Amino acid sequence: MTAQVLSTNRLILRKMREKDVDYLLEIFSDKEAMRYYPACKSREDTMKWVEWTLHQYSVYGFGMWIVEEKRSGCFLGQCGLVLQKMDGCVEVEIGYLFARRNWGNGYATEAAMACKKYGFEQIGLSKLISLIDPENKASIKVAKRIGMSYEKTIRKWDKKLDLYACIPKVEER
Predict the structure, then answer these.
(1) In what order do the strands lie in the sheet with 159-166?
(2) What's the alpha-carbon Rg for the chain, to the nearest Å?
(3) CA of 49: how far to CAs of 5, 41, 45, 149, 155, in Å?
(4) Which helix (H) or strand (E) holds 76?
(5) Taking each helix axis from N to C terminus, what angle separates 137-145 and 107-117, rounded to the nearest 10 degrees?
(6) Residue 166: its H or E element
(7) What is the pLDDT of residues 97-129, one digit of tens each?
């Protein structure tokens, strides 16, 4: 089975591998990149993240994927679909987190749009969400660019998060 899951004009989204720990640590150990998350991750935490993600693939068929530049194969970040439990139900979230050196190039929007299309067209989901810290203006812009809109504020991970959501358009169903 191929590791590539999705492709866009500039990007490849592929399944995570155990050897991606060093790539992910570039993000997870960066205080600025992790500003809106509870804490930075150690190598051990990152290894657990990769193991958890591999488990998600085997159980649900999706998870967070590694994003690489198509031309160079350079690691850019991660983006994908993740189950989130909230208010007694489970939703599918489009998550994205990129290395700081890649911010401002439209990669998060391009990858998130591909994940949105995959969620609606390949999996047949009826709704997708993103949970975003209200101070994370860049992440909010990505959510809005891919057609999500603010739905409500929730409490998760001991903090307030804005829930952005979208449903498939008629042509995406």
Answers:
(1) 4-7, 11-15, 64-69, 75-86, 89-98, 128-132, 159-166, 149-156
(2) 15
(3) 19, 9, 6, 28, 22
(4) strand 75-86
(5) 40
(6) strand 159-166
(7) 999 999 999 999 999 999 999 999 999 999 999
As a whole number of angstroms, the distance between CA 32 and CA 47 comes to 21
Question: Other CB atoms closer than 10 Å to residue 25's CB: what's the count?
Answer: 17
Which amino acid type is present at position 87?
Answer: D
Residue 14 buriedness (CB in 10 A; 0-12 / 13-18 / 19+): middle
The pTM of this model reads 0.94
3-state secondary structure of 151: strand
Token duo for residue 8: 């866009």
Give the Cα separation of 168 and 128 in Å (integer): 9
pLDDT tens per residue across span 154-173: 998 889 999 999 999 865 44
**149-156 and 89-98: which strand pairing?**
unpaired
